[in-house]
Amino acid sequence: MFGWLDYGARYIVENILNMSMDTAIGSSVHFFIYDSLKIVILLSIMIFSISYIRSYFPPEKTKKILERYSGVSGNIMASLLGTVTPFCSCSSVPIFIGFIEAGVPLGVTLSFLITSPIVNEAAFAVLLASFGWQIAMIYVVSGVIIGVVGGLIIGKLGMENQVEEYVYSIRSRARKIKELTQKERLKFAYDSTRDIVKRVWLYILIGIGIGAIIHGYAPEEVLAKYAGPENPLAVIFATIIAVPLYSNALGTIPIAEALIGKGVGIGTALAFMMATTALSFPEAVLLRKVIKPKLIAVFFGITSIAIVITGYLFNILL
């Protein structure tokens, strides 16, 4: 699909920069040029397409949809909606309050909050560019499953008393859902694409830069030994170190691509990527405004275990 782009990147490296592809520096520069262009192209296409779909699911409509579902179907629907409504962690508090205020069960609300940061159209586009359809779809499905299972468990634990009391007392006025014209939807998709690319381009370049260094210089035998699928603790270690390294998912995917190229297990790399976005200190601080420490600990614990299990399954099956 991107053979022409690979050829162009090689031409730049060998003929314009006068570097050999057989050297570490030449290989690293090629990785950086090729991945940067590839990711930006696919990212723009996917964000525009999914943003157009997302124009049909504003927060108010998402809330109304979830009000109609209960039980397992509610958790499934919440996780599915989380994949097309990518909210950053800074939006978690008002979304949480809005869902609880509308009567959406706690477990269903948390299914949405787990899946939404893990799965989004931008990360899907980068994974598609880096690993192909199979890994990209497995990423989406696993993110939905993690959200569903996590929300179900939290719902069964009956931890509604761990939500701050003031959240239940809030009664906001229902906002009218505006129906957009096709022109407005296209403008929404264009504006979303421009806004997201503007916000994440630095994360992408930093991630690609780190990935390029790993691709060109990191010793394969060392990485394969300590972070390869044969190391039983690799997935756990990757998940733990990801928590304090809060970053946009897009910045971690090129790193994951380079690590996998060096022999690191696919499950280990993806566990690192998922944990970086779903588990972070900033999100814990924000969530503390609406839920108590016990529920935060359960939320993080269940999500961590689910990510670790998913990582091991990827390493076994792929």
Automatic annotation (TrEMBL):
Write down the membrane topology: Multi-pass membrane protein
- Which keywords accompany this UniProt record? Cell membrane, Membrane, Transmembrane, Transmembrane helix
* Entry's transmembrane regions: 39-57, 136-155, 200-218, 230-247, 259-281, 293-314
**Similarity remark:** Belongs to the UPF0718 family.
Organism, per UniProt?
A: Methanococcus maripaludis (strain DSM 14266 / JCM 13030 / NBRC 101832 / S2 / LL)
Which subcellular locations apply to this protein?
Cell membrane
Q: Which GO terms describe its cellular component?
A: plasma membrane
- Fetch the InterPro entries from UniProt: DUF318, UPF0718_permease
Q: Does the keyword Transmembrane apply?
A: yes
Tell me if Membrane is a UniProt keyword of this record. Answer: yes
The protein depicted here goes by the name Permease
